[in-house]
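Here is one chain, start to finish.
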Amino acid sequence: MAEHAASLASYIAAQPSRVLVRGFADCFASHWNLRPDLMDVAWPLFAWTEEELNATQLDGVQAVTRAALRHGVLHHTGDVDHFARSRIDLMSWVITNLRHHQSRRSMGEYHTPPDISDLMAAMLQADISAVATPQGEWFIEPTAGTGGLFRSTAQSLRREGRSPAEYGWMMLELDQLSAAGAAVNAIVWDLGPRAVVGSGDVLARADLEQDAFARRRELFGHRDWLSELTGFALATHTADQLLRELTTRR
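Its structure:
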């Protein structure tokens, strides 16, 4: 998609604000069907799409969307090549800069540039090696932020000809917005089917990791139940239409 980013950006930027809101909501729903576990954690970034927005807020949606497109957001997130769209931690930059500087200072939250996280990953390579479990090898980060260190680790694996999908990625984060950013990043960076994000205080909740796994299983089960229910409803509707047609012909 990156080669068509300019034309796609122009198309999106031309849409009315309410169409943009519906588009963001549809984007969430589409990705929820694929990864309900990650999108459940990412919900704080999308909750506003369910609200009744006033004219000023709608204007804000349009202005922010156009600014993001103008500064090349699709070039960073739309490339079909996983390595290319994993060059930066866009969500870290967005979330950090959306906060007031006093909030960032009190939380100790600052954006780590990709070059620095790459250097950190290289220096700490032995310390962030995968942990062997009965479910395979896992990388575990108890203070993940938006996942910047894992981005660098995944890129390092790709340079070595390995796929991040071969591993599990457990990201735990206290701040809900940062955890939401990590969940979005796990999709953008294509960390694979075993990328898990948990939100909570890892110091106060020793079982946070297990809770994240349990929630993941619950959400996939709910997604599959909804899929079966939808399939049954469609089949029933189709059968009803056929019956009506046969009855009409007689």
